[in-house]
């Protein structure tokens, strides 16, 4: 699934939803989605998808998540410009977690201005920041 285009990202047929019916959403209609950098396998972030966001992701080739705080679709990069082009999707053995293989635009996936959301590591009984922001989040979200 490489070479995603805006017209048809994944060659599954516009009317086919059989693949979507096999996804095991939780009682709230959500499924965890792990965004992974396709270039090096680095986990960038974890978000949530619902049926609509997953279908739009497949249709457009751009990562679309469900924002639990805003209670609406969140098209990654709609405010920051740091979009995710989806090059592949995988589902785990229980069909209840999605792995989103992405190409990250701008090098920043986290709203804190960092490359990834997992920038803290447990060391000596406390969470230590291991990565500085690449950009000031105030310049991203005005």
Topology record:
Elements: H1 18-21, E1 31-37, E2 43-49, H2 51-60, E3 64-67, E4 72-75, E5 84-91, E6 98-104, E7 120-123, E8 126-129, H3 137-140
Parallel strand pairs: 1-6
Antiparallel strand pairs: 1-2, 3-4, 5-6, 7-8
How many whole angstroms does the radius of gyration measure?
Answer: 16 Å
Low-confidence stretches: 1-7
Major sheet: arrangement of strands:
2-1-6-5
End-to-end Cα distance:
35 Å
CATH class of the domain at 18-107: Alpha Beta
CATH superfamily of the domain at 18-107: Phosphoribosyl-AMP cyclohydrolase
Q: Taking all residues together, what is the mean pLDDT? A: 90
Helix content: 10-25%
What letter string, H or E per element, gives the SSE order? HEEHEEEEEEH
Molecular shape: globular
Summarize the structure.
With 142 residues, this protein is α+β, with helices and mostly antiparallel strands.
Report on this structure.
This protein has 142 residues and is an alpha+beta fold. It has a domain of 90 residues: Ubiquitin-like (UB roll) (Roll), CATH 3.10.20.810. Helices cover 13% and strands 32% of the residues. It has three helices and eight strands; from the N terminus they run αββαββββββα. The strands form three sheets. It has a four-stranded mixed beta sheet, with helices on one face. It has a two-stranded antiparallel ribbon with strand order 3-4. A two-stranded antiparallel sheet has the order 7-8. β1 and β2 form a beta hairpin. It is globular, with a radius of gyration of 16 Å. It starts with 17 loop residues before the first helix and ends with a helix. The N terminus is likely disordered.
């Amino acid at each position: 699934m490489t070479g995603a285009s805006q017209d048809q990202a994944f060659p599954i047929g516009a009317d086919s939803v059989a693949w979507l019916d096999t996804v095991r959403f939780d009682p709230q209609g959500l499924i965890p989605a792990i965004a992974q950098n396709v270039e090096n396998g680095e986990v960038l972030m974890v978000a949530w998808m619902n049926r609509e966001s997953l279908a739009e992701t497949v249709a457009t080739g751009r990562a679309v998540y469900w924002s639990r705080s805003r209670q609406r679709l969140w098209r990654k990069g709609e405010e920051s410009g740091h979009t995710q082009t989806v090059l592949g999707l995988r589902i785990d053995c229980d069909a209840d977690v999605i792995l989103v293989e992405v190409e990250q635009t701008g090098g920043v996936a986290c709203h804190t201005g960092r490359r990834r959301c997992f920038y803290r590591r447990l060391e000596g009984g406390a969470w230590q920041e291991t990565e500085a922001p690449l950009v000031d989040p105030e310049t991203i979200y005005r």
